[in-house]
Fold each of these.
Amino acid sequence: MKFIKNLVSFVFFTALLSATLGTLAWFYAISAPISKEEAEANQENSIALTIPSGTPAGEIGTKLARKGLIRSAYAWKIYTRWLQFKENKAIDYKAGNYQLSAANSLPEIAATMRQGQVKLVDFTIPEGWNIKQMAQYFESSDFFSADEFIAATRKIPQDKYPWLPNNLPHLEGFLYPDTYKISSDRKTPEQVIYAMLDRFEALALPAYQANQQKTNLNLLEWVTLASIVEKESVIGKERPIIAGVFSKRLAIGMRLQADPTVEYGLGIKQTADRPLTYAEVAKASPYNTYVNKGLPPTAIASPGIASLKATLEPQDEGYLYFVARYDGTHVFSKTYSQHLAAMRQIRQQRRANK
């Protein structure tokens, strides 16, 4: 009898020990391979991993183990099966480009991949940039080529954005200037464009719709005029006044005579030391508002919300003219003689300061 009792005790102890060791082994298998302190010290806090679409869970575990992100591919399989049993459904690990850390546990990495928390890339489009400038920026940032972006802006996605005006030759003016974060595996011209159109739809379009009764401008005209205001304005408080000058000119049938439209049409950029020439100002172009009355056929840049709002609520001070001081501010005039006098004074000041 004593032997049987001893045997039972031994079996129980062995089972308990095995269970304890198994539990410890399991928690070790799913624990982070390295500590957060080690990751920071070794600068190994971020490891890139690409998971193609349709990759089986077992293969994902193998990739993770080879990268040193988990201790055991077998533990990954067991953990995935346990999740399936627990949730009574297939476990979906999202495809994409990930930045993962070996300082995270197996369950933490699994949660990241189930939620599709892929690596993000960011890009910033300043107010007043045009499509050509954006294209050069994306190419220099290794997103895609400038030509690919420009070609994509000529494909108007009215199926996704039915509010876009008809017969647009390109998306100039509707690519909202802002800072963006997108999935690194969606770094294509189309996805970048959709992100910017989404932002326009969320931030700019409601401003127009809320004030549509206050303006006689349609959507394209509004964005086009706002883009000119954007290019002419430097000081925020001057935006509504500049918008007022152009709105007044449009109302009385006077040419806008906006230098940025000439620059856009010719693909050039004037400076204080190299202003536009008389020949350039007189050169025929659909965008030359010295030659043509009214607005140009499209926007000339991406206006920010301040210029868009200023164009909806222009400030009429009776001004018809303004000239830049080259310090960001302008001199506004009501008559042409006052305008000529302001230009002479600014030229004299500039010569005196050289």
Note: The radius of gyration is 32 Å.
Amino acid sequence: MLRFESDYLEGAHPAILEALVDSNFEQAPGYGTDPHCERARDLIRGLCEAPVAQVHFLVGGTQTNQTVIAALLRPHQGVVSATSGHIYTNESGAIEATGHKVLALPTEDGKITAEQVRKIHADHFDSPIAEHKVQPGMVYISHPSETGTTYSLEELTELSRACRELGLPLFMDGARMAYGLAARPEVSLSQIARLCDVFYIGGTKVGALFGEAVVIPNPALMPDFRYHIKQRGGMLAKGRLLGIQFEVLMADGLYERLGRRAVEQAGRIRAALAEQGFGFRYDSLSNQLFPILPKAARESLGREFSFSLLQRLDDDLAVIRICTSWATTDEAVDRLIAHIKQL
């Protein structure tokens, strides 16, 4: 069985494992204060062209989303998200557990717009009973989105402009950041650092054993963020394990290469599906594909390949998710394409 249901099924890139072994008996200060974390921070600052940015390392995506959002919001505020946003659909109420509501906006493609943000803000503050409702306090997006779609530079610029006019911090979930960068080359890390108030560079789904790097371009925005990390159980005693992984990922263009590799493999599969006449639920250019397949085709694929069932459209048709990763091989994709051609 070849698995295509997610992008965190493999362990870690060999260069990361080698670096962890090579540094295994080093003695280093704890809690992210070691030289490896410092070098990783410097590499990230350089790639983001954000020399004074704070960079913090946490273990996983849900932990990171919860910590950032709770740190930014006041008690009476909520976070604006797409209805398909990860914090709204796939985190077991982690945000609500901090006492903050997720204010979900409808979306057809997984993205939200500047106009939607302006409207939810106006609807709240124009209300004569505004103080009886949860106040929108920040905006959450992901790149790529949960549906594999990505923000163009124009879309992100407009969204950023609206957020800054309204005083709403813009937070980008970058769990799959490398795949977003590959799908939208015009949206670079430096552009993201310029347009977002806080974001994170995902490692767990892009070649690391685990780990996410939170970047805060303006340190004044969240001056006590390390306290929030500690309070929410995110401050790893052996913090160098995170630093070493990002030290490897962010050096010599490895992170970008891993993202491009997965997106190229997804492109090959996309082309094969399109050639067979299958449609797609979302116009995704990233490493996630959402083809619409009849039951017979799904059953045939399922005998050799694993994938995720996303949505049943009727008694026959359903949307599935096929996901490539940084480690997806040519051989695996060749086998999948050969099977698709027989459907």
Note: The chain is about 40% helix and 15% strand.
Amino acid sequence: MIEQRNFWIYLLLNIVTCGFYSWYFLYTTTRDLNTMVGDDGRNTEPTTVLLLTLVTCGFYTYYWYYDQGNRIKALADRNNITCNENGTSYLLWMLLGWLICGIGYYVGIYLFIKNLNELISAYNASQYNSGSQTM
């Protein structure tokens, strides 16, 4: 069973830990997406994500949200789950959102978590009903 994320906990822990929680979020979300999707040829090791984030001073996370957002959209479409946003939507909110005092960045994170939770709910339900490993 994969745990759902909560945006408000993400925001609070990100503030309290001075941003370190976002690294944990990247790690666990990468791991969980790899589990839900199975082997789609786009699996990334969670430690690789963290290393690339560190090496690029955080710029890799923008690519990660774009790439994983497209992955979420593809998985949602394959399983008839409503998902109105894709990687481009998250990336635009995150990049252009800085123009509105940084609030848009968190709108992008909120939308990402919302769609991720929809997939997690469907995945957990399918695991409960069938016992298969991927959606």
Note: The mean pLDDT is 92.
Amino acid sequence: MPEVTTVPATRPRTSAPARRKPDWVEPILYLTPSLLILTVFVFYPLLRTLYLSVFLTNPLGIPKLFVGLEHFVSALTSGAFLHSMWVSTQFVLYTVPVGILLALCLALLAVKPLRGIKIFQLIFSSPLCISVATGASIFLMMYNPLSGILNYFLSVVGLPKVSWLTDPKVALWAVGFVSIWMRLGFNFVLMLGGLQNVPQELYEAAVVDGANSWHKTRHITLPMLSPTIFFAAVVGVIHAFQIFGEIHIMTGGGPSDATNVVVFQVYQMAFQNWEFGAASAQALLLFLVILVLTYFQFKVGERRVHYQ
């Protein structure tokens, strides 16, 4: 028999495995647009403010002389800055609680399943669509001591006219009411959304147990709404400390610095006195105050928040 030669089988060639991309590449690509925006509008201005706060600048904002912490010491010993901080604190203390309470009451009324309730929900949330300049201009005309509609109504009922924006005792309250109204739409939408997420089974069980409206509000609605109220309080405090538009348009910090809040004080220092270093230091001090208050709110207030 002829000898049969066998050819050994050759193993097929396999290509080298493709290199796998690291897991962090794709998330970074998605985050890049947001990181660029934050870098340009948040991180860089913050670092620039920190840099300018230790320098004496010329009117163009160019650093000329290193002064260290002198601007911070000057601000903390300045009567004008401490007064503006006190004005801002007063503004926060009565605008934030009143705004949240008013929005909560309106949301409790608007959450009822009644005919035509959508119209009231639209009306209550409408301030959310009005800009600060528009709202402040509207109330500026209403507060006019001669032709304003508020003083007209007071004269109709026989009450004396009020100098809403020129009386130091009234001006901050008048501007505060505008701020409450401007934030009412935002707070109302928050509260209404929170109320609509409360499980109806809890109310039905409470009715079976004989609970009245007050008991349901006290033991069901408020605990279940506490995360929303906590969020509105934190955001409200930050917003109230940063109030500027209403002050700038309606009072310009007057009368007699009665409405000269911290942000307007910083604005005057930077763009009227051209002291950018001192203004940067005051802005950083305000940032630290807001940071400490926010931390305190989370440390203390969050203990009373009931999460589902």
Note: Residues 79-110 form the longest helix (32 residues).
